[in-house]
Amino acid sequence: MVTDQAMKNLDGEAIRRGRKVGIDPGIMRLAIEAQRRGRPFVVETEDVQGDVHFYRCQQEGSSRVLYLNVAHPFFSEVYMAAGSTPEYRAGLEVLLWVLGNAEVEAGERGDADLAQWYALSRGRWSQLLGPALRMLAEQYPATDDEQEWDQP
Description:
Blueprint: H1 4-21, H2 25-36, E1 41-46, E2 55-60, E3 63-69, H3 73-79, H4 86-108, H5 112-139
Parallel strand pairs: 1-3
Antiparallel strand pairs: 2-3
Helix pairs in contact: 1-2, 3-5, 4-5
């Protein structure tokens, strides 16, 4: 069942994308729906400068969308790091899907306290992750000849 909130989220995404490229939001919505038809779970990227969240998840129409923020260090230092493989990225996506789905489902069930807890926690995790990744990079600097991670 597609909720009113899911349709509002889809409209909001169509407006955001339409403004970015100068296309009517109604046409953009049709394009998004066509692109996602038959895809209940979608991973997309966004570039949200100054946003502390490294990911977010929301229901948009009939698709649940996991957004990865390319402006957060998580994207370049972990998700797309040197040596990252499709399998590795899929594993990270599974972890984020579990967290994102729990947050969305709490809101859909009307559990405002739990939904707020997830949203606040996601923000805090994101704030802590940036500095932690910088510390990790200082502790273990990458070298030019590191093409792939060590395999066991």
